[in-house]
Amino acid sequence: MKINIHWPKALLMLAACLISSCNPLGVSGPSRSAVSEAEEVGRKEFERYFTKCGDSYFKRDLFIFGLPKTPLAEFKDVVFDVKQLDLQSADKLNGVEWKGRFSADCKVMRTYDEEYSAVRGWSDWKSGVGIPNAVLATYDLEKRQGQWKIDGKPPSESPEEKLRCNEIPK
Q1: Which of 14, 32, 38, 107 is most buried, most CB within 10 Å of its CB?
Q2: What is the count of structural domains for the chain?
Q3: Of 40, 43, 106, nearest to 74 (Cα)?
Q4: Is 10 contained in some domain?
């Protein structure tokens, strides 16, 4: 039996299918919407603790491993990243639909101190926070039976007490 394939039409149909995100070969992979949803969940958690003013994020009473506690810090060029992890058989049997890790890193930061340092006010800008990878936050994310968990717990709806933009020293 001979099958006649009209190649231009077949290629056009395949291109349309790929553009519309259909799955003609039944290959499973990361859902772009799940990754976007995970980034939104991670950002929302991050912004419970960090205040965004203009193009900077601020955090009061910051503790970064290896550095002294900082009364106030400003971060610029904050980059958010989501990495999808492979689901294991047990994950699937437990109803896990998606799992991965959210991280927030910065390129530059400075601190403000008016009590404990010899230099009162804002420090000079530092690249990479002076620690490897300049990681501000990392959360393990999991979507199970339609519900997101952050580090094994449901996301909190209550905001942390954080700075207001008008409280930040110039």
Answers
A1: 38
A2: 1
A3: 106
A4: no
Residue 74 one-letter amino acid: E
Pairing mode, strands 108-113 and 147-150: unpaired
Higher pLDDT, 29 or 3: 3
Whether residue 21 is contained in a domain is answered as no
What is the CA 137 to chain-centroid distance, rounded?
8
Please tell me whether the overall predicted TM-score, pTM, comes out greater than 0.90 for this model.
Answer: no
Residue 57: beta bridge partners? 52, 75
Give 27-55 pLDDT, tens digit per residue: 344 455 889 999 999 999 999 889 999 99
Residue span of the structural domain in which 91 resides: 29-167
Residue 72 · residue 111 · CB < 8 Å: yes
Count of Cβ atoms closer than 10 Å to residue 57 Cβ: 21
Termini Cα distance of the chain: 79
Cβ 112 vs Cβ 169: under 8 Å: yes
On whether residue 8 sits in a domain, the answer given is no
Distance of CA 25 to the CA centre of its chain: 31
